[in-house]
Amino acid sequence: MSDKVSRRQFAKIAGLSAAGMTGPLECADAMPAAVPRSAGGFPQNFLWGTATSSYQVEGAVDEDGRGTSIWDKFVRIPGKIEDGTTGDRANEHYHRYKDDIALIQQLGCKAYRFSVAWPRVFPDGDGKPNPKGLDFYNRLVDELLKNGIEPWLTLYHWDLPQSLEDRFGGWRSTETCKIFGDYAAYVAEHLTDRVKNVFTLNESGRFVYFGYGIGIDAPGLSLPQAEVNQIRHNTALAHGLAVQAVRAYGRRGTRVGPAENIDACIPAIDTPENVRAAEIALREMNAGYLNVIMTGRYTDAFLKYAGSDAPKYTDAELKIISSPVDFLGLNIYAPQHYIVASDLGAGFMPLPIPKAFPHMNSDWLRVGPETIYWVPKLAANIWKTDAIYISENGTSGDDQVMQDGKIYDTDRIMYLRNYLAQLQRATSEGVPVRGYFLWSLMDNFEWVFGLNKRFGLYHVNFDTQVRTPKLSASFYRNVIANNAAGA
Ligand code: BG6
Description:
- Helix 5 (93-107) packs parallel to helix 7, helix 12 (272-285) crosses helix 16 and helix 17 (410-428) packs parallel to helix 18 (471-482).
- This protein is α/β, with parallel strands linked by helices and 487 residues long.
- Strand 8 and strand 9 form a beta hairpin.
- The chain has one domain: Alpha-Beta Barrel (TIM Barrel).
- It is built from 18 helices and 13 strands.
- 39% of the residues lie in helices and 13% in strands.
- It has an 8-stranded parallel barrel, surrounded by 4 helices. A 3-stranded mixed sheet has the order 6-8-9. Strands 12-13 form a two-stranded antiparallel sheet.
- Bound molecules: 6-O-phosphono-beta-D-glucopyranose.
């Protein structure tokens, strides 16, 4: 079974329901504050944030004129969502956003990454905008700013308007790319008076293959590789069109970049040969999206490997795709490939992953803290960027609610402590990572896993909608307060 498919294997959490405790960081109050560090932490002005996405938290899918997305339809296909739940209600964030922003503030976060639901703003994807949809994001942004939190907006986190899937075949058509550009222009025009940073598409590397290649994400199709490659190319084109739209319609100085689950390559052991090989591997394994965005060309090795399945494209498209970005957003979770140097092929060899390799509560989420050291370091070198943001990092956890109503998620704390220590190692060496968005603020609708995988710093009881800080919320609050991983 492939690695990507095994990501969908599912171990049920024997969840106890939350005991209804709320309030500001009860767990934190029981914790001694970390010793403030004078030196050796993260750089000054390092941006600490947390993240969510529209379909995963908003709920209110039929309210205020929102159109249908491909996920609204997909979750209703029997067997697609492991626990049979939907995002219809999710975290009711559409109505509870003020309370949720208070939770962000209690962590001490200075930034919040959220996504705009395209079908809320354009119910059919194009045509007439729905003012009530935009209003929600106006309210959200205003409330964030009122609380001293920078809004970081993602234009697309997988909730494609169903109408575009029906009329054009979704991302199969460049028509969808053009319409995405128009939608990006509209959002930029109306929100960048207050939103200074925009991510284009979240994780082409996931939603293209899972949605159109193996049918386990919306829209649930299993198309041949040539079509999948073409769709990936189309998403790169959509990214480029969105960058241009933000430049043309956004306020001067608005920054824009991708948020990609970079295929993570790590030198198996730290030798100059392996480091060089891992760098080549990182470029080649990401040749279909990030590399073409950052360089404006598909690599020879990529085109040779794809053969007759390679995407069809024009030079004009490559130019759009490689429109200069202001930062690179990297979603970093698990190590994907441990690399050694090789005399064969492109000069690298990915090693097989042993069966006993440790993972978190999600089978796919291998524990490899060094991933967040090596990947930004190699990426900065390959693509000569001076601003990288970790647009997502975090983990699912066991998250049992104990008799006292608290969640002592030492598994998540172990994961975060180790990843953040490695990130601090990177920044202390001068790797230009400028900020970090922890996935996720709170438990939410985790796509095919439904409500059974929990990634939040706050536990959510989905019956009562009560949010309870886990022990990791205190941990993260201390990290932020001390600007250091060792907290
Ligand atoms: C990232 C996504 O891939 O991983 C998030 O951007 C998602 O939206 C997170 O929630 C966890 O993934 P999963 O598949 O375990 O729910």
